[in-house]
Design goal:
Helix content: 10-25%
Strand order of the largest sheet: 5-2-4-3-7
Distance between the termini: 59 Å
Number of helices: 2
Structural class: alpha+beta
Strand content: 25-35%
Length: 188
C-alpha cells in the first residue's frame, strides 16, 4: 500500500530511510516559509507549533495545517501555501532530525498540524517584524485632513483578514492626537 491510498487520519511520515514526495492537499496543506522569517514565527507561535520540516538547501521551513484551512489566507510576502494544487513536497523519514531535509519539530501523535488561525497570525507578525511598517507615499492626515508625505503612524486596528489597518497623521498633528506618537516617530 502506498501513502497516497491512506485515509487522511492515518497520515504518518515515511518509515525511511529516504525522504518521500507526498502531495499537499491530501493529508495536510503545506505552508512554506523563508528560513529568515522562522525565528519571528516561532516566537509568535509561543509553543503552539505543530510539525515543521527544515529544508536547509532551499532555506525553507514547512508547517502543516488541515487541508483547505489556509485556502482563504491573504497573500503574505515570501509565504507559500500548497494545497489541492497537485504539488508534492519531500517529507523526511519519521524521526529524522539530521541532514539537509529534517524534522525541526517532530509530528505528534495527533498529527503534524498547526492551528491555521494561530499560524496565520504568527506569520503576519513575523512578516511585519521582518519587513517593518510600511508608510503610504502620500496620505490624508487624520488630524487636519491635509495630504502629507511625512506620515506618522498614530494607531492601528486589527483587520478581519490581511494586515492591520493604520491611521496616519502629519508630523504637526501626531503629538496632539489621542494615543498618537511624538513627531520623532516619523516613518520614513
Amino acid at each position: 500500500m502506498t501513502c497516497d491510498t491512506l485515509p487522511p487520519d492515518a497520515w504518518a511520515p515515511p518509515p525511511g530511510p529516504q525522504p518521500e514526495y507526498q502531495r499537499a492537499g491530501v493529508w495536510w496543506d503545506a505552508v512554506r516559509v523563508p528560513a529568515a522569517l522562522a525565528p519571528a514565527v516561532f516566537d509568535a507561535l509561543d509553543g503552539r507549533s505543530g510539525a515543521v520540516i527544515e529544508d536547509t538547501p532551499g532555506r525553507l521551513l514547512t508547517w502543516f495545517v488541515q487541508p483547505g484551512a489556509a485556502a482563504e489566507w491573504p497573500r503574505l510576502d515570501g509565504v507559500g501555501v500548497l494545497g489541492r494544487d497537485g504539488i508534492s513536497i519531500p517529507v523526511p523519514p519519521a524521526g529524522c532530525r539530521w541532514g539537509e531535509l529534517r524534522w525541526l519539530v517532530l509530528p505528534g501523535s495527533e498529527g503534524p498540524w498547526t492551528d491555521a488561525a494561530v499560524l496565520e497570525q504568527a506569520l503576519t507578525v513575523g512578516v511585519a517584524q521582518r519587513v517593518g511598517p510600511r508608510r503610504p507615499v502620500t496620505v490624508l492626515c487624520t488630524g487636519c485632513g491635509r495630504p502629507t508625505g511625512e506620515a506618522v503612524l498614530v494607531a492601528t486596528a486589527p483587520a478581519s483578514s490581511g494586515p492591520d489597518h493604520g491611521a496616519w497623521a502629519c508630523p504637526a498633528c501626531a503629538p496632539h492626537l489621542p494615543d498618537g506618537p511624538g513627531a520623532a516617530e516619523v516613518v520614513r
